[in-house]
Structures are given as C-alpha cells and as structure tokens.
C-alpha cells in the first residue's frame, strides 16, 4: 500500500518506522516476513529530502535475505602499504559484499507490497508520547498533516547533532564508478585500503577499489579526519589516484558517490521516550573505528523482529561495550597522531589471520583473540591513550553532511594538485 490515507479514518499500527534507508527498510522487511505486527513505514517523498543512491558493504558467510540486491562480492581483499608493498588475504568463510541502495529498496518494496505493511510517502515531524504508545505528526505537499499512532516507533532518521563525545573524526569520501578502455581490474580482489595516496597532515587517507568487471570498478578516495574537503579537492585526489597510482589510462565516469560518516565515541541512546527507539546510525549502528554500518543494522533489526515475534520489545546495542571501548582508544590515538594510521592498519592485515581480523572489526572476537591482536600494535601509545580517556570532556557537535560534488566529476581534477 502507498500514499496518504484520508485523515478522518485515523491510522493506527502496532509499529511505525520513520525513515526508509538501510535500517528502516531492513526492520520493515523482517517484520513483514514475520507477519506478527501491523506496520507503517514513513519515507520521504520524491525530492531533495530523499538521499542519493548509496553503496553499503559488509562481510558475512551468507546474505540470503539481501542476496538479490548484492551487486558484487569478493573472496580476497588487498591492502597496499605506503611503500607500495601489498598484502592479499582470503577471509574464508567470509566474503566481502556490496549492496547498492536502489536495488535494495526495490527488493524490499516488492516484499512489502505483498504484505500487511503500509508505506507512506510523507515527511515525518514530531514524535510525542501518548497513552499506550506514541504518535507521529507527518506532512506531505498538497495533503496537509496526518497523525499516526502506534504502540512502538522506531526512528532511523539522521541526527542533526551528534551526542557529546571525547573524540569525533569523520570518514569522508568521494567515489567514481569508472569504465576503462582496457582490462584494468581483477574482479576477484577488492582493494580495501590503498595507502599509496598522499597522506594529509592530520588523520589518514586511502584509496578503495571495488572491481565490478575487468573494465569497471568503484574507485574511491577516503579520509579519516576532522573535516570534509571541497569538491575540487576530492576531484583532484581521485584524479591523482586513478591516473598516477592505479594507472587506469583512458576511462569514463558513469556515476559518482559522496558521503560523510561520523566516527565517534559518543553514546547513542536507543530509547528516547516511552515506546520510541532509535535504530541504524541514529542509534549507534555505525562502528566507530571503521564506519561500517550495514552488518550491525542487519543484526539489530533481526533481534528486534525476533523479540516482537516472542512478545518482547528488544532493541539491543549494535556493538558490545568491549568493542566500543577499544574503538574509543583507537580514535583518540589516531586523532592525537600518537599512532601512524597507515602503518597500524597495514600491520594488522599482515600479522592477523584475515577471518579473525574481520570478526574483530565486526565485534565478534573473544577477549583472548583481542589481546593477541592488541599486542601486535603500538602498545605504549595505546596504553597512554587508555590512561587519559577517563579525564577527557565530552562535547557535542553538529552532524556532518555529505559534500556537494561538481556536476562534472572531472571538473578541476586536472588543474588542481593532489593534496600533500
């Protein structure tokens, strides 16, 4: 079902989901397949409020629920050190998978259309507690306002202000979907981190290559730092990486993508009112040390749906306390420059079994495994950081937004110098 119903009918559901990105649609999909609750999804109408197409990546042993939306997968991952040396690993039984948002949305919407889930194209406003649950005020151009009532509301909309944190870095990136004139890529190997790019004065930078065919790939330039770049700087960095480092030769750009992901040790509250919960990035699903979100969203929404099926409201923390504590140390160590980011990540991939390292990055390792991984890193700088963290104040900051890209992805790319 779609569209806005007549306001006089009143709209009651067991569950209202605000936002239709990875988290909102994943939860709606799981609840639709469970069939144990009536669900209303509120997603923005067409226009500037709808986000552009995005790419989500994750690693797992299977992806049965989203497999039709998986555009590509890789059984081997490669890291390039700043000196040019490379390390290729096989994380079997895990595979690295890429999902594009538009195929994912089409897949889920097709399932929802065959279920009891109602999808409303509207702008969600305030959420207020009422007896027996909560109500949401919505509006749509030319239609006016509508009040939705539900026992439970799950809000996945982006936050305007991040919760107070001791350390906040941004993972900001710009990417080109390129098509080369000749075969330049190995479709079996994804370049997860290529540190051959010039490093910024603060933080770290790397290239990222996801081959889709021998002549097609997503090529990205990524930084972990305190502020995004200008569109011209991203274009210059991507041009330098594509032409000088990868040596792609002649190529065309079929599409672009840009993003800013907060990497923060802030505490994201999941329950924000009686019967009202935050999920997805707004609920802390983004892993602070890596920026990955999709796998945590899948785990969290599965737990919520399983709990509702069994008669319980369960919104688990997306990441464990131990993982978040380690992330806080790493973020502070990177932000202060106490550790060399490229050297640290390169050493991790060279010295740790790949499957164990990916489980570690996803919060799935034991204490013993984590001690072993930790001892392979810069122990003294990390211990110094552990000692100072309890005394650092937490400060709030606005949530970052994605940079605006030039209309022509090559604009200024040849004239601007690559960043030092």
Task: Please give a quick description of this structure.
It holds the Pfam family Lycopene_cycl. The protein is α+β, with helices and mostly antiparallel strands and 420 residues long.
Textual characterization of the structure:
Helix content is 26%, strand content 33%. Helix 1 links the parallel strand 1 and strand 2 (39-43). It folds into 3 domains: 7-157 and 267-309, FAD/NAD(P)-binding domain; 164-264, D-Amino Acid Oxidase, Chain A, domain 2; 321-393. With 420 residues, it is α+β, with helices and mostly antiparallel strands. The longest helix is centred in the last third of the chain and has 16 residues, at 294-309. Helix 1 runs parallel beside helix 2 (101-113) and helix 1 runs parallel beside helix 4. Strands 1, 2, 8, 9, 10, 11, 18 and 19 form an 8-stranded mixed β-sheet that branches. The protein has helices at 22-34, 101-113, 231-245, 294-309, 321-336, 341-351, 354-361, 367-374, 379-388, and strands at 11-18, 39-43, 55-60, 70-74, 76-80, 86-89, 95-100, 118-121, 123-130, 133-140, 144-155, 161-165, 168-180, 189-194, 204-213, 216-225, 251-264, 271-273, 276-278, 395-398. The chain has 9 helices and 20 strands.
